[in-house]
Design a protein that fits this description.
This protein is of the alpha/beta class and 475 residues long. Among the domains are: 179 residues, FAD/NAD(P)-binding domain, CATH 3.50.50; 39 residues, no CATH class. It contains 13 helices and 18 strands. Strands 1, 2, 8, 9, 10, 11, 17 and 18 form an eight-stranded mixed sheet that branches. Helix 4 crosses helix 5, helix 5 crosses helix 11 and helix 12 packs across helix 13. It is globular, with a radius of gyration of 21 Å. The two termini are 35 Å apart. Bound molecules: flavin-adenine dinucleotide. Flavin-adenine dinucleotide (FAD) binds next to helix 3, strand 12, strand 16 and helix 11.
C-alpha cells in the first residue's frame, strides 16, 4: 500500500492541477481535533461526496479525509467522465429488488447525475459538465441488441423516456463511425472533466472546514471507543469511520473476497475539431460499445477525443501497482480500438495515456453498508461505473452515519448479501485467466469472427458460477 503516488497521472489531472503548487500534507494534530465525528479513508468521489452530504446535513460536523496520495489522484481524477444513471442496469435491479425498489434506486442515481451539475454550478466549480446523453452502441454483430432488455424494462416500469432505442441512422447522425451499428440513448447523462470535479470538491470542502490529510496512508481501524485509525503519519480517533477505498479495498481485511481489481486505460488526442465536425459528433455524447471489456469515448470542449478501453490487467491480492498507471499492452489495445472506430484519427497525436484500477464486484453493483457494530461504513465495487453512483453512495453513507433508520439508509441495496470471490491465489488466477479470455473473445467478435469453444467456455465460466459478468452481456 505504500508505493509513491504520482499526483498527476493522465491528462485530466495535469489539466486540473496546472499552475497549482504541490499539495502539502496537513499536520496531524490528534489532541486538537480528535476524536473526529467521522474519519473518511479515501478521497475519491465516494469519500468526497460522503463528506459533502455530511457537511450539508450536519453543519459543524468534525470531519477528516485521509488519502494516500492527493484527493482525486486515483480513478476519480482519471476516469472517462461519463456521468450516467443505472437505467441500463434495470433488468438486474428489478430481478434483485423488485420493480418499485429498482425504480426508486434508479431514480436516485439519476438525481445524482443532475445534482453533480447543479452542485458544480452552485459552488463555482468549472467541471465542464455537459448534458449530451450517453449512447450505448453495437460495434459488431455479437453486440447487436445488448441494450434491448433494459429498454424494455424501462418501458415496463413506466420510464420509457430514460432509455431509448436508436436505429443505425440515428446513431450515425450523432457520430458517424464505420463500425457503429444501432444503439440506445440515455438522454439525461452528462460528461465532466473528472479531475476538475474531484479537486473542486476538495477545495469546496476545505473551505467548509473539513480536515484533509493527503499523502497519508491508513493501515487499520481498531475497534476501540472511539475508533482508532492508524496511519503512516500518526493515529486518529473517530466516532465513526467511512472506508471509501475503491479497488484498494480488495486488500483490506474483511473485503478480500468481495472485489477483484482490473485495469482500465485511456488515451487523449490533440484537438481534432475539424475531424469531429466531419463525423457530426457535435452533441457531446458519451459513447460506449457493448463489449464486456468496454470501449468508451467522448469529446472535450477544445475538440479532443478521450478514448478508453477496459482491457488492463488483473491484480494479485488486491495490490494496486504501477501497471494500473501505465501499461503499454493495454494502451496499444486502446489505440488499435480507437483507430477501428475512427480510422481518420491515424494521424492525430495521442498526447497522454494513463490508466487506473476498477473495483469489480460479483454482480457489478456497489456494496454499500456497515460493519464492526455499525461504526465502520463502506462503499466500493462500482465496477467501472462510479461517477454518478459514487455521489449516490455518498448520499447513502451520510444517511447511514446520520440517520440510520431513515428511508435512504434502509434501501434494499444497503447491506445486501452478495456472492464472494474465492481467496488468493485462486482469486488472482481465476481473474487473470477469465480476464484474458474476455478480452480475446471480444477482440475475435470485433473482427467478425466466432470465438473458439474453449474461449467461449472460459469467458462464460463466471456466469456459470453465479457472477454477473463473463458471458455475452444480456442485462
Ligand atoms: C480509466 C478509468 C475510466 C473510468 N471511466 C468511468 C466513467 O467514464 N464513468 C464512470 O461512471 N466511472 C468510470 N470509472 C470508474 C470511476 O472512476 C470510479 O468508480 C470512481 O472514481 C470511484 O470513486 P471512489 O472514490 O470510490 O474511488 P477512488 O477515486 O479510487 O478513490 C479511492 C481513494 O482511496 C485512496 N486510498 C486507497 N488506499 C488508501 C489507504 N490505505 N489510505 C488512504 N487512502 C487510500 C486512493 O488514493 C484513492 O484516492 C473509470 C475508472 C477508470 C480507472
Amino acid at each position: 500500500m505504500d508505493q509513491p503516488v504520482d499526483a498527476a497521472v493522465g491528462w485530466w489531472l495535469q489539466e486540473a492541477l496546472a499552475g497549482k503548487g504541490p499539495s502539502v500534507p496537513a499536520a496531524i494534530e490528534p489532541d486538537v481535533e480528535s476524536p473526529f465525528d467521522v474519519v473518511i479513508l479515501g478521497g475519491g468521489y465516494t469519500g468526497l461526496w460522503t463528506a459533502w452530504w455530511l457537511v450539508d446535513r450536519q453543519p459543524g460536523v468534525r470531519l477528516a479525509i485521509v488519502d494516500r496520495g492527493i484527493c482525486g489522484g486515483g480513478p476519480s481524477g482519471r476516469n472517462g467522465g461519463f456521468v450516467h444513471g443505472w437505467w441500463d442496469q434495470l433488468p438486474y435491479l428489478v430481478e434483485r429488488f423488485g420493480p418499485d425498489q429498482a425504480l426508486r434506486i434508479a431514480r436516485l442515481v439519476d438525481e445524482s447525475v443532475a445534482s453533480i451539475g447543479s452542485w458544480a454550478a452552485a459552488n463555482g466549480v468549472e467541471a465542464w459538465y455537459r448534458r449530451g446523453g450517453y449512447m450505448r452502441v453495437s460495434a459488431s454483430p455479437a453486440q447487436d441488441g445488448e441494450w434491448r432488455a433494459a429498454v424494455r424494462t424501462a418501458a415496463a416500469v413506466g420510464v420509457p423516456e430514460q432509455y431509448i432505442d436508436l436505429g443505425a441512422e440515428e446513431v450515425r447522425a450523432r457520430c458517424a463511425s464505420p463500425v457503429m451499428r444501432a444503439g440506445a440513448l440515455m438522454p439525461n447523462a452528462a460528461t465532466v472533466q473528472p479531475a476538475r470535479l474531484a479537486r473542486g470538491l476538495h477545495d469546496v470542502l476545505a473551505a467548509r472546514g473539513v480536515t484533509f490529510l493527503e499523502h497519508t496512508t491508513a493501515s487499520s481501524v481498531e475497534s476501540a471507543t472511539p475508533l482508532l485509525v492508524r496511519t503512516s503519519r500518526g493515529d486518529l480517533r473517530a466516532e465513526q469511520v467511512v472506508l471509501a477505498l475503491n479497488a484498494w479495498a480488495a486488500s483490506w481485511p474483511g473485503f478480500r473476497t468481495s472485489l477483484l481489481s482490473w485495469g482500465s486505460h485511456m488515451l487523449m488526442t490533440e484537438p481534432v475539431p475539424s475531424f469531429l465536425e466531419s463525423i457530426g459528433w457535435r452533441g457531446g455524447e458519451a459513447i460506449a460499445d457493448s463489449r464486456f471489456t468496454v470501449h468508451y469515448f467522448r469529446t472535450t470542449p477544445d475538440g479532443r477525443v478521450a478514448f478508453g478501453a477496459g482491457v488492463g490487467a488483473a491484480g494479485f491480492g488486491g495490490r494496486v501497482d504501477g501497471r494500473y498507471d501505465r501499461d503499454a499492452r493495454a494502451e496499444a489495445r486502446a489505440r488499435d480500438a480507437m483507430l477501428r472506430f475512427f480510422p481518420d484519427l491515424a494521424g492525430a497525436e495521442v498526447v497522454s495515456a494513463w490508466g487506473g484500477p476498477i473495483d469489480i464486484s460479483p454482480d457489478r453493483l456497489p456494496m454499500i453498508g456497515s460493519r464492526d457494530g455499525g461504526r465502520v461504513h463502506y462503499a466500493h465495487g462500482f465496477s467501472g461505473n462510479g461517477v454518478a453512483p459514487a455521489h449516490f453512495a455518498g448520499r447513502l453513507l451520510s444517511a447511514i452515519v446520520g440517520d440510520p433508520a431513515g428511508e435512504l439508509a434502509t434501501l434494499q441495496i444497503v447491506n445486501r448479501s452478495h456472492r464472494h470471490f474465492p481467496p488468493e491465489p485462486l482469486r488472482f488466477t481465476g481473474a487473470r485467466v477469465v480476464r484474458e479470455a474476455l478480452v480475446r473473445r471480444d477482440e475475435v467478435e470485433d473482427a467478425g469472427g466466432r470465438p473458439s469453444l474453449i474461449l467461449r467456455a472460459v469467458a462464460a465460466a463466471p456466469r456459470m458460477l453465479g457472477y454477473r459478468f463473463g458471458a455475452t452481456a444480456d442485462d
